[in-house]
Amino acid sequence: MRRVLLGALLGLLAPLTLVAPAGGSAVAITHSPRAHQASTLRAAGWASSNWSGYAITSRPFTSITGTWVVPTVSGSKHGATYSSSWTGIDGFNNSELIQAGTEQDFYNGRAHYYAWWEILPAAETRISSVAVRPGDRVTVSISKGASGWTIYLADSRTTSFTTTQSYFGPGTSAEWIEETPSVGGRFATLAKYGTATFDPGTVNGSSPSLAAAGGGVMIQRNAQVSTPSNPDHEADGFKVAYGSTAPSPPAS
What we know:
Number of strands: 18
CATH topology: Jelly Rolls
Strand content: 35-45%
Helix content: under 10%
Number of helices: 1
Distance between the termini: 69 Å
Number of domains: 1
Structural class: mainly beta
Largest sheet: 15 strands, mixed
Order of helices and strands: HEEEEEEEEEEEEEEEEEE
CATH architecture: Sandwich
């Protein structure tokens, strides 16, 4: 009887350690609001345990666009690791968030790439019609219209996807983010993603006028694991790199 009970208990705990296999999802992946992180390590305007990149706040935001090059992930000693590149509205200082992006994860001995969209509190919805691979140039736009919010994602090598959804967030922030998502309800270990280039971006139909104070770093296990560059000369793009060293901004 004791062996039966122990086996049942282990069966309940096992899903907490599973990773999502190719073609399926053993655990829910969620792209969470920014988790504030107090740290003396940061060399930017803010720090977080799950976000890095750029955010702007205060204005009511009704549209955003972002374009990035899908980074290449590699394995690490930490086992299953995850990274997400995305553009979205809200989440910086509230619990609402509408977003779309690409996933770059490493588990079961290989890298996994795909596109997704998400409106919290739901978990991500994979976009199976858009194939993604490293080096692809992906563009996302999210905009408010008369019939709802339209989410558009296009891969320059393959195809595009559009959906219109209801969303009622306040629109108080706009972001271009490299993130470690929540996997099975816990922040994952960030994948070794190298460098991602976000360029260009817009908000409300014009330049976001990015400033260095709007950049943020990611801290995990008291180490700075993801760091953005300064904005480029047009103030509408930047690079973000795995590790604690800031990369150079994109060339004009």
